[in-house]
């Protein structure tokens, strides 16, 4: 498991241990990866983050059109593995969790411990720091630093 | 009143039962519930569904038939689960002074009427 923000590590480790999730991705609502577990290639992470953020944006707009405030979670049930996508509020802004899990666990267990992780993250998140604006000239450097932190290379 | 609600009504009438749920075992999700305050339905469904799944796999691994009734006993009460048809499980959260024999009989009979 790799995380850009060290305070995310403990709640995420607890979630992974309790839920038996195979892959987990925490990202901001714009698709910037905060932590990941189980992905071996940076390309996979970036693609999953972009797609996940896009799906959440689409479903939130759909919810708005239907007069609902927001959908809590989106679950795709598959034969061999399933996927849950859920957006949640943190003191650092709105984040998205993408969890892939197999038949060794259940959507109920994943949701239960995901909700607990969200509560823990909200409780321990440092409040003081506001993210610096992303400029074109430092985008490449920031991206490379994030990939190095997430994949160790 | 739906058949599922009738089943929950019948089970929760047993003295000492603090709540009953019908859950989908594989997903660990609540199908219907009738719970007293302080009983977390989604948590009970998720954890009991996981327990049932593991016990069914354990029985299968030991070349035994799947369990029909599960009694998880704790210090302050018990969780009872009766396996019904179509992946449904009838779950009851009971206090320490509950009539477990009556609860078991009612649950086994009611679980057969699910689905």
Distance between the termini of chain A: 14 Å
Helix content of chain A: 40-55%
| Number of structurally distinct domains of chain A | 1
Mean pLDDT of chain A: 87
Beta-strand level of the residues of chain A, as a percent range?
A: 15-25%
Kindly state the number of beta strands of chain A: 6
Keywords for this entry:
heterodimer; A: 153 residues; six-stranded antiparallel beta sheet; 4 helices; 6 strands; 22% strand; B: 115 residues; five-stranded antiparallel beta sheet
Topology:
The complex is a heterodimer of chains A (153) and B (115).
Chain A: E1 2-3, H1 9-19, E2 23-28, E3 33-37, H2 42-65, E4 74-76, E5 82-90, E6 93-101, H3 107-124, H4 136-151
Antiparallel strand pairs in A: 1-3, 2-3, 2-6, 4-5, 5-6
Helix pairs in contact in A: 1-3
Chain B: H1 3-12, E1 17-24, E2 29-35, H2 41-61, E3 69-74, E4 77-83, E5 88-94, H3 100-111
Antiparallel strand pairs in B: 1-2, 1-5, 3-4, 4-5
Helix pairs in contact in B: 1-3
């Amino acid at each position: 498991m790799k995380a850009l923000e060290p305070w995310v590590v403990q709640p995420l480790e607890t979630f992974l241990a309790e839920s038996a999730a195979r892959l987990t991705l925490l990202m901001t609502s714009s698709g910037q990866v905060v932590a990941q577990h189980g992905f071996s290639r940076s390309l996979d992470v970036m693609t999953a983050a972009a797609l996940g953020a896009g799906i959440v944006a689409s479903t939130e707009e759909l919810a708005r059109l239907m007069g609902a405030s927001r959908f809590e979670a989106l679950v795709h049930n598959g034969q061999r593995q399933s996927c849950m996508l859920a957006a949640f509020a943190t003191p650092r802004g709105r984040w998205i969790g993408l969890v892939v899990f197999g038949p060794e666990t259940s959507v109920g267990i994943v949701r239960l411990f995901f909700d607990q992780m969200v509560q823990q993250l909200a409780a321990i998140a440092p409040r003081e720091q506001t993210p610096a604006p992303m400029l074109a000239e430092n985008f490449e450097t920031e991206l490379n630093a994030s990939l190095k932190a997430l994949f160790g290379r | 009143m739906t058949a599922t609600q009738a089943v929950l009504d019948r089970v929760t009438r047993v003295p000492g039962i603090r709540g009953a749920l019908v859950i989908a075992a594989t997903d660990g999700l609540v199908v219907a519930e009738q719970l007293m305050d302080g009983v977390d339905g989604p948590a009970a469904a998720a954890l009991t569904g996981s327990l049932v799944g593991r016990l069914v796999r354990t029985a299968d691994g030991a070349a035994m038939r799947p369990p029909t009734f599960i009694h998880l006993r704790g210090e302050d009460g018990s969780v009872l689960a009766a396996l019904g048809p179509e992946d449904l499980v009838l779950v009851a959260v009971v206090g320490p002074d509950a009539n477990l024999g009556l609860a078991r009989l009612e649950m086994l009979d009611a679980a057969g009427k699910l689905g």
